[in-house]
TrEMBL record:
GO molecular function: dioxygenase activity
Residues in coiled coil: none
Keyword Oxidoreductase in annotation: yes
Lineage: Bacteria, Bacillati, Actinomycetota, Actinomycetes, Mycobacteriales
Any matching Pfam family: BphC_D1
Protein name: Putative 2,3-dihydroxybiphenyl 1,2-dioxygenase
Keywords on record: Dioxygenase, Oxidoreductase
PROSITE patterns, per the entry: VOC
Length: 306
């Protein structure tokens, strides 16, 4: 299937209410009216929302919304899942209303992360108001940014899910063998002019959402957010720097829900016709010093296989 972009992200968290101030004040995200259950809806553009924080007893990624071109693409995706005998569930009318989309189908990857393939999201022209003076976000048809999860192992089943079911391609990957015959390291996948929309980091024994990334139109908004986070003595997990892979100048900080948020500007826009795969000689051009006190709390130990 052909996924256009990362359209929305949903999380559950006991601290969901904190995002009502965290999102707008730190990053300039907009706020929509809360859901009936108190769900916080954060906006990056005229879409109803891009990031949903649902109330829940545990901090976790609830779902990843992948945007399809239109209804025909949606029907085609379902036909493909049927043909490949891959289990799926249709989103209920209530769930579609909650996500503000016309339809979606839910699939689970081999590590049980929920992926939703949707089409026709609701928007209101001219309605986006940033949470503070701001130059806006890279969103629209380019979507949210990217999401990165930790998985305890990487096998053919995961490879097949990402490349065959989701139809994405590897942009860059750094899998290295482990002494017990497994692998370790990050892999980043793309489906549009962004260098990557999805990442899986293989770390034996650990699992959970590691970070999400959002991109602003102006580096000044990133710099001002970086200043503010330091003034407020909030937890920075990676200092300001520029990745070599995607050229983004960004910093990482811990969110109220435990995973990290990368906020940056200047991400590469690929010429999808002509670019070729290349191999960065190092992860960073400058900066991005890892200063976190350990892994994001959403990344947790998993029971070893029996
Ligand atoms: Fe990232």
């Amino acid at each position: 299937m052909k996924i256009n972009t990362l359209g929305y992200l949903g999380f559950e968290s006991p601290n969901h209410k904190e995002w009502e101030s965290f999102g707008p004040e730190i990053f300039g995200l907009g706020l929509n009216d809360p859901g009936a259950d108190g769900t916080v809806y954060l906006r990056m553009d005229d879409r109803h929302h891009r990031i949903a924080l649902h109330p829940g007893s545990e901090d976790k990624l609830a779902y990843i919304g992948w945007e399809l071109h239109d209804k025909n693409a949606f029907r085609g995706a379902i036909a493909e899942l049927e043909a490949k005998n891959y289990p799926y569930e249709l989103g209920s009318p209530e769930e579609c209303a909650e996500r503000a989309v016309t339809g979606f189908v839910r699939v689970r990857d081999p590590h049980d992360y929920v992926h939703e393939l949707f089409y026709a999201a609701e928007f209101t022209a001219g309605s986006f108001l940033p949470g503070k003076p701001h130059h806006g976000f890279v969103a629209g048809a380019d979507g949210v940014g990217h999401v990165v999860m930790v998985v305890p192992e990487w096998g053919d089943d995961m490879e097949s899910f990402v490349t065959d079911i989701l139809g994405m391609e590897l942009f860059a990957g750094y899998l290295t063998p482990t002494p017990d015959g497994g692998v370790f390291g990050p892999q980043f996948f793309r489906c549009n002019p962004r260098s990557h929309v999805l990442g899986y980091v293989t770390i034996p024994g650990l699992k959970g959402v590691q970070h999400i990334a959002i991109e602003g139109n102006s580096l000044d908004d990133v710099g001002k957010a970086y200043d503010l986070v330091q003034e407020r003595e909030m937890e920075i997990t990676m200092t300001l720097g520029r990745h070599m892979m995607d050229t983004l100048v960004s910093f990482y900080m811990r969110s109220p829900t435990g995973f990290d948020i990368e906020f940056g500007a200047g991400g590469v826009v690929l010429d999808t016709e002509h670019f070729v795969q290349t191999k960065p000689s190092s992860a960073e051009v400058w900066g991005h010093k890892f200063v976190a006190q350990g892994w994001a709390p959403t990344v947790k130990p998993v029971a070893p296989p029996a």
